[in-house]
Write the structure tokens for this entry.
Amino acid sequence: MDGVERYLKNQQQRAALIGKNQYVGEKRNGVRDGYGVYVYANTFFRYEGEWKGGKKHGHGKLVMGDGSYYEGNFREGEIVGHGFRFWAATGNQYEGQFDEGEMTGQGVMKYGDGSLYEGNWLENKYEGNGILTDASSGCVYEGSFHRHRRHGYGRQVDQNGDEYCGDWIEGKRQGQGTFKGIDGTIYEGQWRQGLMHGAGRLTHNSGMICDCLWTNGRPSDEATKIVIRGEQQLEITRNNPGMTLEILCTDEDGNVMEGESGRRLKISAGYACDETTDEKTPFGFCVKPCDIMISVADFTPNRLIKPATPSFDATESHLTVLSPSLQTHSTPSLAQSIDVTRGGDDVFLQPVPILSTVKGEATASGLVFPPPPPAPPSPLIVETSSDVSMKDSSKQSLSRSSTPAGSKLSVHKGTGSKTQLKKTTTTSQSSLRKMTEKAAKEKADLKSVDDDAGAQYCKTGKYVIIVSDVTEPPFLNERLEPAYLLVKVTKEKKSRKLGHKPGSRLGAGSRASVF
């Protein structure tokens, strides 16, 4: 500016340049050479800087009428070399290499919105390797560019932490690449137009793996429902040692999805009821939830834990389970491992674990419906001495008032000072004795049935086994349709074969009959 001030000593000299192609500065042999100011006729451009041979050459500043400017190196009248460019309208700033007025070579662009690009340029566009930080999306891309777009190999990290490393074509993921989500999801495979497309392996954040062909971001063959292999209805006896379910994940055409593994499946059950409940089934009736467990043959105390024996509170009319693991005041659930006796053999039952599919399939063996929990005993009645005295006096009064006409009342004196009263009525005591014996027999029969069916086996009737997709979070935000199996449980048939008795275990490998 010192050189300019030597030639522009006042505002009148500057004003004299307006509207004309005017130059004020150093010359050599009548040609602009050295330091000078040149104002163009349209007044939009003004150059202040070094000249050589009549051309802008060396360091200079080209100022535009809207406040934008370039300051840097000139060569033979062109912007070439290192320089700084500012755009007043957008606030963008570039510092780096230029060639014939265009950003070419290494340079840094700071955009007005906060975005930043550091890398190689060609004719004012990203070209080659560079790093782009996008302020609007928060993502950072480092890799190859072509014609201002991501093109070639590059790595992008999104604002939420998701990361993609792989091939790009014209700004979109295309080719081979790996995506790693912040939630743990990983996809390795082929891409097209920014979507998973082609052969690829997806490890979902639920733990599920899908290794298959993909089309526009979804599996080409996609599971839609759960199927239980075989008939939808079974008939078994209550002493069946255990059912085996083969569970499949299929598409609408019934094709097993062999490319997926790790889908989480839950087996639950319900007992048919006449009431309307939330548990509706495709068999035309509702069910109430009930337990279903696995019969374990190779029981070891270290693997299965028996629950504490339920204790009954005599002060309450309902069951109170005092085990710390079963804090409830209702009928206890068989949600823990238990042991029962069937046909003289100990059978250990444990809850059905969540299944995990392998190549679209899962198998559950030894499934049984456990016996219902024992009914709570009648509350204990504790009588005080005063209660006993009141009852005795009441009985004596009742005896005197209820003595029928014609009955005899005799007094017998025994040894000592005690007197015994003996009431003799005309009512037949033999009939009363028979009624008492009959009631006792019926009670014993009921207890025998309860011991057999309740303590050893489940109750007979219709059960429904339900297999549900509990993958969490749901794979591709969708859950499969559940599968239902109707199981009719009947009493065991008596065998006439020598040595067989009802309640004994069926041989290994036995299967339920289909009806």
In short: The first strand starts at residue 22 and ends at 28. The chain has a mean pLDDT of 78.
